[in-house]
């Protein structure tokens, strides 16, 4: 037996063009070599052309003074800061739009998806019209529409709408009161602690329900924790905290929290456009649940809301999550259209940087790396969650 095995092994590794393994190995080496030569040619040709035109290469500009202002920044920034700081500001702005857009579009899309299955004729038709209109109008057109609506139809700062005390809406954006002072950091820390407790509590509640069948009031408990933990952190720290009210000075408002027209238009366009696609994903996921599950839940006497929340949606998630991941990625990548309406996302900031420095290739690489990193992060998280809720065969 050993003699036969060793003989077969020697026959298998004999160098012969008729051996499929040898042929596939040669083809793969040739393809890798051709790709390597193509990459080497492109890189060397690019470096040669840059050298002929006296264009410097590398990321040395990263630490030089930027010298340009950014209209909206979530972190401290001034024109005296470096290009690296400016690019970080653009990345943070992109992340802010992506996170807010994903959360809001998911909530709106879920409501619309459920509404499309409503037995109420009016609700069903309104949701259908919304979905069809939003999906078939290009996103760029929608962004222009929302931007024109906000900047042209809204009154000026002196005639700003004041629906609630301290809140002003005008063609300069939305101004709201803001919390300032050292206590704000403690409130954020308390909020983080509350979220951590809620995650652990949700895990415990699920295990408890699987073991005993008893349902823990997680939603009400989470609401209480989200309020009490930040307040308790602020009270125990004793740090100062003040409410800053917007004030009209000159031709615009100062102080308070500001949402620019560009940010509002970008979020409105991304949310309304993406929610229409998410609605179809949710509708398809709900319809994929076996009819027997609906009948069994109704036989237990569950209300329509509890039936949907406790029985149908948890099962539909297994169908919803994979295509939902694609919609999250689309929203993140579509945020690059912000440059069309003047919102300073990473594309806009890098464009200004490369216009001043001439580092076009490096600038494009930065944009590509930023979107690649964000998209892969979203994909990894959603794939992890998809595996977590997948059915485990016994």
Automatic annotation (TrEMBL):
Species this chain originates from: Alcaligenes endophyticus
**What are the entry keywords?**
Amino-acid transport, Cell membrane, Membrane, Transmembrane, Transmembrane helix, Transport
Q: Report the principal subcellular site.
A: membrane
In which compartments does the protein localize?
A: Cell inner membrane; Cell membrane
Q: Which NCBIfam families match?
A: HEQRo_perm_3TM (TIGR01726)
Q: Which domain of life is it from?
A: Bacteria
Topology in the lipid bilayer: Multi-pass membrane protein
Query: In what residue span(s) does the ABC transmembrane type-1 domain sit?
Result: 91-382
Task: From the Swiss-Prot or TrEMBL record, give the protein name.
Answer: Amino acid ABC transporter permease
Name the protein family.
Belongs to the binding-protein-dependent transport system permease family. HisMQ subfamily.
């Amino acid at each position: 037996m050993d003699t036969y095995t060793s003989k077969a092994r020697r026959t298998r590794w004999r160098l012969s063009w008729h051996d499929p393994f040898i042929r596939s190995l040669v083809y793969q080496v040739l393809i890798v070599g051709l790709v390597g030569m193509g990459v080497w040619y492109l890189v060397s040709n690019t470096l040669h052309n840059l050298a002929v035109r006296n264009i410097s290469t590398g990321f040395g500009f990263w630490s030089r003074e930027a010298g340009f202002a950014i209209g909206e920044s979530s972190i401290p920034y001034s024109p005296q800061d470096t290009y690296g700081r400016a690019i970080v500001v653009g990345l943070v702005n992109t992340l802010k739009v992506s996170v807010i857009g994903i959360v809001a579009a998911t909530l709106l899309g879920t409501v619309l998806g459920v509404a499309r299955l409503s037995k109420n004729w009016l609700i069903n038709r309104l949701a259908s019209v919304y979905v069809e209109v939003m999906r078939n109008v290009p996103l760029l057109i929608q962004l222009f529409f929302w931007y024109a609506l906000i900047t042209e139809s809204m009154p000026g700062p002196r005639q700003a709408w004041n629906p609630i005390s301290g809140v002003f809406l005008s063609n300069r954006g939305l101004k709201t009161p803001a919390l300032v002072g050292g206590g704000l950091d403690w409130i954020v820390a308390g909020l983080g602690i509350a979220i951590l407790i809620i995650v652990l509590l949700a895990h415990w509640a699920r295990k408890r329900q699987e073991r005993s069948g008893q349902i823990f009031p997680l939603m009400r408990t989470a609401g209480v924790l989200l309020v009490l933990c930040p307040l308790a952190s602020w009270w125990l720290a004793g740090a100062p905290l003040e409410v800053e009210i917007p004030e009209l000075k000159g031709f615009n408002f100062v102080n308070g929290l500001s949402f620019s027209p560009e940010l509002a238009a970008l979020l409105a366009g991304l949310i309304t456009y993406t929610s229409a696609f998410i609605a179809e994903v949710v509708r398809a996921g709900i319809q994929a649940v076996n009819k027997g599950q609906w009948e069994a839940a109704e036989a237990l006497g569950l209300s329509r809301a509890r039936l949907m929340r406790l029985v149908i949606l948890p099962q539909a998630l297994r169908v919803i999550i994979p295509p939902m991941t694609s919609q999250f990625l689309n929203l993140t990548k579509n945020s690059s259209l912000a440059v069309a309406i003047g919102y300073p996302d990473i594309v806009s900031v890098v464009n200004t940087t490369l216009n001043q420095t001439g580092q076009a290739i490096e600038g494009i690489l930065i944009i590509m790396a930023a979107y690649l990193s964000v998209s892969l992060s979203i994909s990894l998280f959603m794939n992890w969650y998809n595996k977590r809720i997948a059915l485990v065969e016994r």
